Amino acid sequence: MTSTVHLLKLSVGTENMADLANWQATKRAQTDDGLPRHITRMWPKRSEEILNDGSIFWVIKGVILCRQPILRLDEYIGGDDIRRCAIVCQPGLIRVAATPKRAFQGWRYLPVADAPEDLPEGRQDEEPLPPALSKALAAIGVR
User: Fold this and answer.
1) What is the per-residue pLDDT across 105-117, written as a single tens digit (0 to 9) for each?
2) Looking at the predicted structure, is the pLDDT value of residue 75 above 90?
3) Which run of H or of E encompasses 71?
4) CA–CA gap between residue 117 and residue 63 (Å, rounded)
5) If exposure means fewest CB atoms within 10 Å of the residue's CB, which of 49, 116, 118, 141 is most exposed?
6) d(Cα 141, Cα 143) in Å, to the nearest integer?
7) How far is 30 from 106, CA to CA, in rounded Å?
8) Beta carbons within 10 angstroms of residue 81's beta carbon
9) How far apart are CA 63 and CA 52, in angstroms?
């Protein structure tokens, strides 16, 4: 049986979850069938594990704040004729327990055991705290 692994990715240039959601609502950030995607240069070698209920966990301003289930990996050829991977996600962001994360390049695999837990359903609609405050609270163990 195939195990599951997640991806961890910095959301570069976004200040908060609303910025990420707004970007994903643009045509440029969507597949032809209207799903949000993230295009990356490298094709994940562990694609079978990612496609077995894996999610992409988004790091915003040094804090893992949300995730999206990954639906599929599409081939994407840009105007430069270079093959890339489009990570196609389920629409909508699922908030997770704020977890500090240092900056890194590209994406990383995130084992299921290390993934932050989803916030309870009743907290999903709460106004998110600013990332700097989430980071400070998470650093002292408050989630």
Assistant:
1) 889 999 999 999 9
2) yes
3) strand 63-77
4) 14
5) 141
6) 6
7) 20
8) 6
9) 25
